[in-house]
Design a protein that fits this description.
This protein has 320 residues and is α/β, with parallel strands linked by helices. 37% of the residues lie in helices and 16% in strands. The chain contains twelve helices and 14 strands. The strands form four sheets. A seven-stranded parallel beta sheet has the order 3-2-1-4-5-6-11, covered by helices on one side. The protein has a three-stranded mixed beta sheet with strand order 12-9-14. The chain has a two-stranded parallel ribbon with strand order 7-10. Helix 1 (14-26) links the parallel strand 1 and strand 2. The chain is globular, with a radius of gyration of 20 Å. The termini are far apart.
């Protein structure tokens, strides 16, 4: 494969670590990594030539305008989770600005990370995401709706990760894996409830494999450039059953966790629920059409079962 010049944002994040590690060790592409703090990048970038660290942030993206015009590919994984203004500035304004600084005659592909939370079950924009979503979700919704207006639009492949796992001693934990690792004790209670819900999940290492494939094999003109990243959907009950089997916990009975029961519990304990969370509890089936993972391209999948999810999140079963 011909070596490409690839600009990467968000390299020091959870997904970014797996992406950079994979691209360094499994390709010969020239990588230009934009990071605010190089010390947070826990990867040996001197293991081969062709790796350039660019210290800066998305707020200063115009400083790299000349360099961006020479890029064959851009991987946009940077995102902000802070206050509303910062989230909008980074996730919308500066992300769009970066894409506008790319040369459509030179850049063959932009791999832009959105989130599956902004899609409905038919992979179309979910109206509620733009109306009552969290600051992060709304920013991703707004940015996605603007992509078609850009000159680079024909070269943009939008990636929609579902529940994202990842992290280890040398890589930041994803919000999901960190939460599972800390709250796995609740499985002892959850096993007694039946929950009518379903979802997808995917590990950042598997995301990296998909991205590596797409860099050298962009979607054809007749193929969709909207890629939902996830393993096949699993129901909440299936996840609980697999978790109990992994943790050696028996399920004696199950009480249906209805919306009425949830509302009653929240009312008794005066639990405040934001509009987006309340919507999610009623929507329940966050499933999508044609999810993509390494298996889609004939590649091995790193995390393919819920037992893998627990193990890779640092949850280990107690010895009998």
């Amino acid at each position: 494969m011909t070596s490409k010049r690839i600009f990467v944002t968000g390299a020091s994040g959870c997904v970014g670590h797996y992406l950079v590690e994979t691209l360094i060790h499994e390709t010969n592409h020239d990588l230009f990594l934009l990071v605010r703090n190089p010390n947070k990048l826990k990867i040996d970038c001197n293991v081969r030539p062709g790796i350039t660290i660019l210290q800066g942030n998305m707020q200063e993206i115009e400083h790299f305008s000349d360099l961006l015009k020479t890029m064959d590919c851009a991987i946009l994984a940077a995102t902000a989770w802070g206050g509303p203004q910062e989230v909008y500035d980074i996730n919308v304004v500066k992300t769009i600005r970066l894409m506008n600084l790319l040369d459509p005659q030179v850049c063959q592909q932009v791999l832009y990370f959105s989130t599956a939370s902004i899609l409905d079950r038919t992979n179309q924009p979910l109206q509620e995401a733009g109306e009552i979503g969290t600051d992060y979700v709304r920013s991703k919704y707004v940015c996605f709706r603007q992509l078609s207006k850009l000159a680079i639009a024909p070269h943009v492949t939008t990636l929609f990760p579902t529940l994202l796992l990842g992290g280890d001693a040398q890589k930041p934990w994803s919000h999901i894996s960190d939460g599972i690792g800390k709250e796995s004790k609740w499985i002892s209670l959850l096993r007694f409830f039946s929950i009518d819900a379903a979802f997808h999940y995917i590990h950042a290492k598997d995301v990296a494999q998909v991205v590596r494939h797409l860099i050298d094999n962009p979607p054809a003109e007749d193929e969709s450039r909207q890629v939902v990243l996830g393993n096949p959907a699993i129901t909440a009950d299936q996840a609980i059953e697999e978790a109990c089997a992994y943790l050696n916990k028996r399920i004696y009975f199950r009480i249906p966790l209805t919306q009425r029961l949830i509302d009653f519990i929240f009312g008794v304990f005066r639990i405040k629920v934001e509009a987006w969370d309340r919507f999610a509890m009623k929507y329940r089936y966050f499933v999508h059409q044609n999810p993509v993972n390494p298996t889609t391209y004939g590649l091995p999948t790193y995390c393919s079962s819920f037992a893998d999810v627990l193990k890779l999140s640092g949850v280990m079963p107690k010895k009998r």
